[in-house]
Amino acid sequence: MTPPATVSDAKVSEALPDAAEILALVQARLEDDKSEDIVSIDLRGKTSIADYMVVASGRSQRHVGAIAEHLIEALKAVGIKQVRVEGQPACDWVLIDANDVIVHVFQPEVRNFYNIEKMWAGTPRS
User: Fold this and answer.
1) C-alpha to C-alpha distances, 35 to 9, 57, 83, 96, 122, nearest whole angstrom
2) Between vectors from CA 98 to CA 115 and to CA 30, what angle results, nearest 5°?
3) Which residues of 32-61 are buried (b: 16+ CB within 10 A; e: fewer)?
4) Helix axis angle, 61-77 relative to 19-32, nearest 10°?
5) Residue 71 pLDDT > 80, yes or no?
6) I need a surface site. Which of 26, 45, 75, 106 has the fewest CB within 10 A?
7) Residue 57's beta-bridge partner residues?
8) 30-43 pLDDT per residue, tens
9) Nearest to 58 by CA among 125, 99, 110, 18
């Protein structure tokens, strides 16, 4: 006969980071990878797609790809498993959807062309 399970035997899931913690991680990782012109936009109360949007630039396709890869690895390391990515392997514009935080990493000329920050001009930046 097996002994009854105790509280110490129970698996307790660790809490996933909230939107503000994900935003802080994203900003730190982008800065570590020498991303340029990092802009964070607070979307709370404006849309249901995410709480924050972050827009950054890399200097080349290779730089944009490396920034994206490092960010995806960092997000997965803190337990965010459902990271969705668009734009690889071209790396002109990589979109990383980390649930409550959406990250756009552009080459400068592509960022200037689409100017997605302008769509959210009335939204406070953080």
Assistant:
1) 44, 6, 20, 15, 24
2) 60
3) ebebeeebbbbbeeeeeebbbbbbbbbeee
4) 140
5) yes
6) 45
7) 36, 106
8) 999 999 999 999 99
9) 110
Residue 56 has pLDDT above 70, yes or no: yes
Residues 6+ apart with CB under 8 A from 88: 65, 68, 94
pLDDT at 11 over 80: no
Q: How many helices (H) and strands (E) does the chain have?
A: 4, 5
pLDDT range class, residue 4, cuts 50, 70, 90: low
Region 45-60: mean pLDDT is 93
The answer to whether residues 34 and 28 touch, using CB atoms and an 8 Å cutoff, is no
